[in-house]
Amino acid sequence: MSYVKGLKCKECGHRTAISPVHVCEACFGPYEVEYDYAAMAGKVTRESIARGPKSLWRYKDLLPVDKPVTGFHSGFTPLKKADRLATELGVKQLYIKDDSCNYPTYSYKERVVAVAISKAVEFGFKTVGCASTGNLANSTAAHAAQAGLKCYVMIPHDLEQGKVLGSLIFGPQMVRIRGNYDDVNRLCTEIADKYGWAIVNVNLRPYYTEGAKTYGFEIAEQYGWQLPQHTVVPTAGGTILPKIYKAYQELITLGLVEDNKPKVYSAQAAGCNPVVKAIQKGVDIIEPQKPNTIAKSIAIGNPADGYYAYQCVTKSGGYGESATDREIIDAIKLLAKTEGIWTEPAGGTTLAATIKLLQSGRIPKDESVVISITGNGLKTQEVVADELPYPRVIDAKMTEFDELLEETRRAQSEPEPALVGA
Ligand SMILES: *Cc1c(COP(=O)(O)O)cnc(C)c1O
Ligand SMILES: [Zn+2]
């Protein structure tokens, strides 16, 4: 049973049938999937969802896919109560939605890719591709390999080695392009038109973006079928933020959660913050930027859905904050030390922005807060390599160990360790 009605233009409301199109033929606005919520009443329930698999497909009724082909182990990542970090920040109820452990390529992108690849197969495509800042390439390549599709991944030339190898291992055709993500994306739009491939985040964008809702559905379900008052979300192309908000609104519409007027906040790097700038100015014009930040996975200077990210943040009563490269690195280290989660700069950005939102009082410290961690630090080792000096080598002798222990104890001014039996 599918509840999908078709595609509907977000701008002019023009409707069209489900097909691999993304731009409205009437006004060039973006198409979005439209559902029959009335038909879901009494059928899509907390119980029906709980009976589903422990993957993003447990929300299949709210996704535009008839037959999933990948992603059977993607999604349903932990919502972790972050008590040690909460104490550090002086917050009462703090949670981490942790997609750094999402399967199989360790980022939130599995959600959008599983939906897009399944849809590509339904449409009969044999070749898929993407324009990517790294994580999307990893995920598209892995899911394409699983589905037996030919795959082209298009990336900026200067990505981290972990992101490059993290795609190449799955055997796609990789195209490294001189320029930034916005140059890559422009070329990809032309490629999709000329060769008729399924570029997941271009011509399959209406389906791709729907996958991001599962991040929001999971937060609600894992929080005991309620919504956190504040959700802080990184913003790159502007897919995930509006879709988390849409997920919350859909659950409210279906009566599965109470409407507590949840607020969403955008986090960006100071070196690429077109959406946050617009939010802070209160002007709904996203001025394109030339990115310059270590947070490469969210370095999109001209975000496709930046306008919608702006709209959701302001409509919800949230705000936006950006973080410098220094603040991003410090936040990566803080999250690792307090919660045992190693995230990449996108996650560092989100935590750093949250800290600033708490300090400025935009987010009250006694209300519930979810921080969206969307990627894994193992892929971006270069950003912390110089931050973590290698320990010196000792011989395998007790005297050398004692000496080393004494050295580190003094350096960290810790008390003398107790001896066993003393
Ligand atoms: C892609 C990505 C995002 C967000 O991108 P949107 O295009 O705004 O959805 C956030 N974090 C990481 C790690 C990503 O790879
Ligand atoms: Zn339109």
Automatic annotation (TrEMBL):
<keyword id="KW-0663">Pyridoxal phosphate</keyword>
<dbReference type="GO" id="GO:0004794">
    <property type="term" value="F:threonine deaminase activity"/>
</dbReference>
<dbReference type="GO" id="GO:0004795">
    <property type="term" value="F:threonine synthase activity"/>
</dbReference>
<dbReference type="InterPro" id="IPR001926">
    <property type="entry name" value="TrpB-like_PALP"/>
</dbReference>
<feature type="modified residue" description="N6-(pyridoxal phosphate)lysine">
    <location>
        <position position="109"/>
    </location>
</feature>
<dbReference type="GO" id="GO:0006567">
    <property type="term" value="P:L-threonine catabolic process"/>
</dbReference>
<dbReference type="GO" id="GO:0003941">
    <property type="term" value="F:L-serine ammonia-lyase activity"/>
</dbReference>
<keyword id="KW-0456">Lyase</keyword>
<dbReference type="GO" id="GO:0006565">
    <property type="term" value="P:L-serine catabolic process"/>
</dbReference>
<dbReference type="GO" id="GO:0009088">
    <property type="term" value="P:threonine biosynthetic process"/>
</dbReference>
<dbReference type="GO" id="GO:0009097">
    <property type="term" value="P:isoleucine biosynthetic process"/>
</dbReference>
<comment type="similarity">
    <text>Belongs to the threonine synthase family.</text>
</comment>
<dbReference type="InterPro" id="IPR050147">
    <property type="entry name" value="Ser/Thr_Dehydratase"/>
</dbReference>
<dbReference type="InterPro" id="IPR036052">
    <property type="entry name" value="TrpB-like_PALP_sf"/>
</dbReference>
<dbReference type="Pfam" id="PF00291">
    <property type="entry name" value="PALP"/>
</dbReference>
<protein>
    <recommendedName>
        <fullName>Threonine synthase</fullName>
        <ecNumber>4.2.3.1</ecNumber>
    </recommendedName>
</protein>
<dbReference type="InterPro" id="IPR004450">
    <property type="entry name" value="Thr_synthase-like"/>
</dbReference>
<feature type="domain" description="Tryptophan synthase beta chain-like PALP">
    <location>
        <begin position="74"/>
        <end position="375"/>
    </location>
</feature>
